[in-house]
Amino acid sequence: MYIRTNEHFAGPPDSPPKGQNYQAPIKNGGQFITEGDADKVLTIISGPSPYQSYIKAVMATPAFAKLPKKFLRIVGSAQEVPQHLRSRFGSVDDKIVGGTIDRANGTIYLVAPPGRRNDTRLEYALHEAVHLLAHPFMAIVDEATFQSKYGPSCRPEPTVGTFQRKFCFGLGEGATQLITEQIMAKQGISKFIGDSPYKDFIPPTVELIKTFSPEKFASAYFLGAVKEFTDAVEARWGNGWRNVANMTGAGAKDRALNYIDQLERAYIGRRGPKGDYPTIQRTKQMA
Questions:
Q1: Is residue 279 part of a domain?
Q2: Biggest CA-to-CA distance, the chain
Q3: Order of strands, edge to edge, in the sheet holding 99-102?
Q4: Count of alpha carbons within 13 Å of 42, Cβ hemisphere only?
Q5: Looking at the domain assignment, is residue 160 inside a domain?
Q6: Dist CA 237 CA 231 (whole Å)
Q7: pTM reported for the whole predicted model
Q8: Model confidence over 200-235: pLDDT tens digits?
């Protein structure tokens, strides 16, 4: 599915200190957890992964010390979710589904799957926890302030992380799910094999990260170095990255990958390459 699989991404040192044998407290991403498992969610999120040093940097901030003890909320109906957050959930047969975060208050809200009441799957909770730790942690940035620092956003909602506000829904959710899956893979946590609404968002996101370096991406996603990441993207792809973002958000995975291929061809052409350019299709064939 991917040109380069998750475990091949470079990243900061992420192994436990020598002599320590870390074991994830839950090994099945599809396992149902309750609000009482919030500490296990944090243990996994901060455990071994390509993003461990970035996540621990967020957790070392004074703001993280204000994270409420009951930051994980699993609800059974829309009436239990604050009014201003209800529009952020999806719906199936008039029942809200999914999850979101209240960034200002450091709270994750997850709706129990159909037929359940007070639990959710581990993978869903981890996905929302990654959203919560994205820059800015427990802070609301109004649109004027955001634009003055990062330029126009495509998602003006202040509860959305800085990276997703800049790079749009598809690449933002693709990045969040990719991070979640990389954390799980590093810790030997099996992926939930059921519904996967963001699966088509991941391949274009992989190409974005691979092209502009996992380190620059992680700094943008968790630490707010979005301007530096955007500058690098626009220096190579110009405003064409916005087409990639729009195609990804529309679920047009193949179109997005083909367009990335075009952008890369144009970039290589400007640099006057010698030899064949390894297109996405050819790379897949060689893999």
A1: no
A2: 62
A3: 72-75, 107-111, 99-102
A4: 18
A5: yes
A6: 10
A7: 0.86
A8: 999 999 999 999 999 999 999 999 999 999 999 999
